[in-house]
Amino acid sequence: MEFSSGFKPITIQPQEIESKSFEIIKEEFGAHDFSEAEFTVVQRIVHASADFELGRSLIFHPQAVEAGVRAIRQGRPVVADVQMVQVGINKPRLEKYGSQVNVYISDPDVAEEAKRHNVTRAIMAMRKAVKEAEGGIFAIGNAPTALLELIRLVKAGEAKPGLIIGLPVGFVSAAESKEELAKLDIPYITNIGRKGGSTVTVAAVNALSLLAEQVVE
Amino acid sequence: MEFSSGFKPITIQPQEIESKSFEIIKEEFGAHDFSEAEFTVVQRIVHASADFELGRSLIFHPQAVEAGVRAIRQGRPVVADVQMVQVGINKPRLEKYGSQVNVYISDPDVAEEAKRHNVTRAIMAMRKAVKEAEGGIFAIGNAPTALLELIRLVKAGEAKPGLIIGLPVGFVSAAESKEELAKLDIPYITNIGRKGGSTVTVAAVNALSLLAEQVVE
């Protein structure tokens, strides 16, 4: 097939754009208290959102990055709350370690059980996920109800995630769900406030898989 | 399957959360110059980002909403620049009108041609898209190079989109590409600045398909 049309192509390449972007972010971000590894995650999130306020609102459990890197290297699954998070995550980097991304929200049995128990599919998806993804990374970018359910399951001793990335966005329950997450003493990455979303959740997971490749323990 | 565990379920339902969120957004947004239909799109974008600054930075070509609604009702395709945009878009609402969402960036022929011409896959995907999606809605949330190429093709008379939703996010070329879009005299929805992304682009398309269902002409 021939799509070209004789015009001068735009020659700036994605790699070039990315490295220039990261320079700008570092420069404009200014002083902070994040560790070097944490800041790698912060930078990717700012890169995905162009939002420094969101970047500065991030909070990390002290073991968060280490736990995320370990989960990936051990080939633990990543659980995405919605399909947008699943498709955005870099799969080849995870597959090198035998890790994959699972999403349960569209499973027929989840829909059925949600109806039967009169709860959201997001909640039921978490109940299924914790049974199948012990030690995995739970990446929640959309549904506060999913995050609240996951927190409940952790407290009840029914879930043992390796890391929770809790970055749902929204005006109802999102900020509250993240406050609850930040009270847990298990590895988490979250933020203060309403902002978040699928793209920044993807950015966090992708930052961790890059760190898994790069960081020498 | 039985995922339930005897705990009190969280009973707030997605519909309830959504309508409460829209009330909050309307209240906090304050005075603005958007038309009623435009504000429906703005509200969905703020809902997806929790970012009023982003909402206020949106700009609409005077015919934008009308053109988007018409394209959907006529069953024109929606072209997404990346898979995250594709999966986020509400399909059943488009399918009622015979419209669907196409994404070209992962097509093997696009990859091949991009390599041969030494341009990004995002650019080559647009060259393929304009041949297959005349009159459609081009929804670009990720790649500024895709938007710049689409603008070039419009100027060259090689592309006739029904509506361009140009909301790429980023630090290099994103803001510039949107400035260029806003100079065109064809229907567009875009914003000023670096912010944007897949989730807000999805929100714009979903707002238009809701309007297609609701608005009486």
TrEMBL record, chains A, B:
Q: What is its EC number?
A: 5.4.99.60, 5.4.99.61
GO MF annotation: an example: precorrin-8X methylmutase activity
Recorded hits in InterPro entries, A to Z, give: Cbl_synth_CobH/CbiC (IPR003722), CobH/CbiC_sf (IPR036588)
Q: Where is the Cobalamin biosynthesis precorrin-8X methylmutase CobH/CbiC domain?
A: 16-209
Q: What are the protein's UniProt keywords?
A: Cobalamin biosynthesis, Isomerase
* Top-rank lineage group of the source organism: Bacteria
Q: What class of enzyme is it?
A: isomerase
Its annotated pathway reads: Cofactor biosynthesis; adenosylcobalamin biosynthesis
The family assignment reads: Belongs to the CobH/CbiC family.
Question: What is the protein name given in its UniProt record?
Answer: Precorrin-8X/cobalt-precorrin-8 methylmutase
List the source organism: Caldalkalibacillus uzonensis
Its lineage reads: Bacteria, Bacillati, Bacillota, Bacilli, Bacillales
